[in-house]
Amino acid sequence: MDIMLFHSTYGLRPAVEAAAQRFRTAGHEVWTPDLFDGRVFDDVEESRAFREETGHEELLKRAILAAAPLSERGLVYAGFSLGAAIAQNLAFGDEKARGLLLLHGTSDIAEDASVDELPVQLHVADPDPFEPHDWLTAWYLQMGKAGADVEVHRYPGAGHLYTDPDLPDYDEDAAEQTWRVALGFLDSLGER
């Protein structure tokens, strides 16, 4: 599979490159565009200020420019938190998308959104302050209405970005389970 993997609100941290390497080791080709032009954050408030200054539309434009030259290949869009939201937006706009792997995040879905049985897998902490249960229930129903084939995996007790070993949210057991399930999901896309 060809995977476009977007970073979280903290920027292109080592955990993103480590995830990409896991996927490469399993035989996938992976791109990790840097939407923050080299900026990496340790503080969510600093990141929020940077995102507001840059603007959502500009970040989305950067993601589209990174993915566009490769979209003919039939990409799997993937991302961490903010990057998951961006990946979801791109997958819904790319009729050749092969799948969508969401780690720690989702995005709004337009009422008229439509995809043709797009395989989607979400991994999220339970509970997650950024992805509350009511939101996830509504998101799941909207994804189904749009035509997506959705799996949701919840990890009780894990923090929001539980796959990043350099952040306080890290949960080794939940992270390893996420990688095992995600690799299975990617393998299944090759069989479609």
The CATH topology is Rossmann fold
Terminal-residue CA separation: 11 Å
Number of domains: 1
Alpha plus pi helix count: 6
Overall shape: globular
Helix content: 40-55%
Low-confidence stretches: none
Question: What is the compact description of this entry?
Answer:
With 192 residues, this protein is of the alpha/beta class. Helices cover 42% and strands 18% of the residues. The chain is built from 6 helices and 6 strands.
Task: Report on the architecture of this protein.
With 192 residues, this protein is of the alpha/beta class. The protein has a single domain (2-190), classed as 3-Layer(aba) Sandwich (Rossmann fold). Helices cover 42% and strands 18% of the residues. The chain has helices at 14-25, 44-54, 56-67, 82-93, 133-146, 172-190, and strands at 2-6, 29-31, 76-80, 99-103, 119-126, 149-156. A 6-stranded parallel beta sheet has the order 2-1-3-4-5-6, with helices on both faces. Helix 1 (14-25) links the parallel strand 1 and strand 2 (29-31). Helix 3 crosses helix 4 (82-93). The model has no long low-confidence stretch (mean pLDDT 95).
